[in-house]
Structure formats: structure tokens, C-alpha cells
Amino acid sequence: MSTYEGDPVPEGLAIQQVSDLLGVPAPTLRSWERRYGIPVTRRSDGGHRRYSASALHELRLMRDEVARGRKASDAARSVWALLDTEGPAQARIQRLLTASRELEPRAVREVLEDARSDLGLGPALDEVLMPSMRQIGSWWESGHCDIAQEHLTTEAARAWLSWLVSIAPPPVHEAPVLLACGPRDLHTLGLEALAALLSHDGLATRLLGARTPRRTLVAAVAATEAPAVVVVSHLSTQRRPAVDALVAVAGTGPQVFYAGNAFLFPDSREGVPGTYLGASLSGAAAVIRERLLST
Ligand code: B12
């Protein structure tokens, strides 16, 4: 069932080694296998679990889903879906990952464009692009792909998203939604995807991009009279300046929204002004559109 290729540890790792490597306690690893078959391990002659590279890959995905705040049973369902090669989105994820491994940006863009025309823009983003990026991130973290693969895929996806914004019909609402990363955040891809969705929904957007300083954001709101602002932050270490930017901008009048892994857990959202947009990009675009159209 796994899509993982290459096994750098042919004899397999022992459970304690895997626990140390992934930061997941051994009893949890046993329970994931017992309850969800993630992963199904082979046994040594002495009957001990042995973890292959593909088993490690499944566990990394499971760990990351749980870290996103999902219950283990829901996390397991996501991992099964990601590893399953059936289904229209899954087939495209596989094609995108192949294009990424082969460092073929044109093929990356073609897969994304095919996904958009066959599945629609929202599913192309939420079900093909984002899971593929998470998979590449997981490969990169485990040393199973070079950073070149991540950079090339990210840049190909960004080029496609920027093209989508450029071909969107003229906006029905002129006042723009401002889209910014927190002052220390470089992860722009989610925002760029949101810009594509909103612009194809008839909303004007202004993408301020990576590392937007608080004062710049406040000045941009004043200059554009933006009715809405979205701030995204990915790392918990970067959350504080992002929250400061949200507080500063909330005081000036626009509707304020925020998203990203830095805000995944409920306690990370305590006292943050505005509306948390959740994980789904299409869901986020729908929330923003509804709010703007109802005011
Ligand atoms: C591409 C990428 C980069 C690129 C970004 C380029 C760009 N222009 O975007 C570059 C190379 C710059 C980069 C840098 C770094 N990165 Co990086 N990066 C990634 C990667 C591979 C994809 C990011 C992405 O776009 N994901 C798609 C997003 C949208 O998916 P998601 O994170 O799962 O987000 C979900 C929700 O949070 C939410 N969401 C997130 N964004 C948004 C936006 C909106 C509008 C909405 C509504 C929702 C939403 O929806 C998603 C769906 O569930 C991820 C892997 C991953 N798992 O995502 C690592 C990852 C995020 N990066 C990581 C790290 C560690 C870094 C660096 C610190 C590395 C380093 N040592 O320098 C730096 C930090 C730079 C900085 N100051 O911000 C880690 C973060 C681990 C953690 N949680 O602490 C990850 C998870 C990789 C990994 N597995 O280790 N990175």
C-alpha cells in the first residue's frame, strides 16, 4: 500500500530506534499497529518488530496527522487515504510526486492543471497540491529527498497559482482582501492558493507575501481600504509576531482572519482576534466570501 521507494535499512530498525528517531513512545507505536495496521511490520527471527523505510514513512505521516490535532482514528483514516493509490486525487498525487522526483516543473504544473479541470480548483488544492507538499516535506525531513525537490515543486506550484490569479475574471468586489504571512514566516504557498480561490470567486486580493512586517500590514490596510485581512503563520515559534500583527490590524477596522499550523491547537488561538480559518483552503475561501457578502 505504501508509495515509498528505497529502503536504506534493509534489515529494518528496532522499535526503540524508531521511537527515538520519530519522538513517538514505543507503546504508541505498538498501539497504532495493533489498532490501525500502521504500519504492518515484519518480525525478526526472535519475534521483534522490524521497521522498514516504508514503515517509517507511514509512521511519520501518522505522527504528523496526530500533531495536527487529529484523533488517532481520524489520523489513521487520513494516512490510509494518502497511501492508497486508488481514486482521482490519489492518482494525481502520485503523478505530482513523480514529476517532483524527476525535477520536472512543467509536469508538476500539468498535473495541477489537469486536476483543476477534472476535479475543480478547490479539490485540486486541498486534495492534490497540499497532500503532495506534506509528503515532500516528510521526505525532506527524513532525508529521503533533496531540498532541490521541495524548492522546484514549490516554485512550479507557485508559478501555476500566480498564472491562475492572472487569468481570473475581473473582480466583482473591488475592495481587496489582503493576504500576508506573519512577520517571520516564509511559507506563502497556502496564501497563494487562497488568492487563486478568492480571485476565481470574484474577490479582489492583494498578496503581500512572506515576512510581512506589522507596520506594513497596517499601512496596506489604510492604503487599500481592505475590508478583510488574512494572516498565516506555520511555526509556533513565529506565532507571537503574527498575533501582534493581527492585533494591530484588528484595531483599524477590517475583518480579520488567520490560519496555519501555528494556530492548530485551540490554546494557540486563545486571545487571538478574528476568525480561525481551519485547514481547508476551499472552506476558508467560502468563509471569507460569505462574511464579505453578508456585510
Ligand atoms: C515548501 C516548504 C518550505 C518553503 C516555503 C516556500 C513558500 N514560498 O511557501 C521554504 C523552503 C521557504 C521553507 C522554509 C522552512 N521550513 Co518549510 N516546509 C515546506 C513544506 C514542504 C510545504 C509547505 C506548504 O506549503 N504546505 C502546505 C500547507 C498549506 O499545508 P500544511 O502545513 O499541512 O497546512 C495545513 C494547515 O496548517 C492549514 N494551512 C496552512 N497554511 C494555510 C493557509 C491558509 C490560507 C489556510 C486557510 C490554511 C492553511 O491548512 C493545511 C491543510 O491541512 C512543508 C511540509 C508540510 N508538511 O507542509 C515544510 C515545513 C512546514 N517546513 C518546516 C520547516 C522546519 C521549515 C524551516 C524552519 C526550515 C529551515 N530549517 O530553514 C524554514 C522556516 C522558514 C520560515 N521562517 O518560515 C517544517 C515545520 C515543522 C514544524 N511544524 O515545526 C515542515 C512541516 C517540514 C517538515 N516536515 O519538517 N519551507
From TrEMBL:
Gene3D superfamilies: 1.10.1660.10, Cobalamin-binding domain, Methionine synthase domain. It comes from Nocardioides psychrotolerans. The keyword Protein transport does not apply. InterPro entries: Cbl-bd_cap, Cobalamin-bd, Cobalamin-bd_sf, DNA-bd_dom_put_sf, MerR-type_HTH_dom, MerR_fam, Meth_synthase_dom. GO terms for molecular function: cobalamin binding; DNA binding; DNA-binding transcription factor activity; metal ion binding. PANTHER family: HTH-TYPE TRANSCRIPTIONAL REGULATOR MLRA-RELATED (PTHR30204:SF67), REDOX-CYCLING DRUG-SENSING TRANSCRIPTIONAL ACTIVATOR SOXR (PTHR30204). Pfam families: B12-binding, B12-binding_2, MerR_1. This is B12 binding domain-containing protein. PROSITE patterns: HTH_MERR_2 (PS50937).
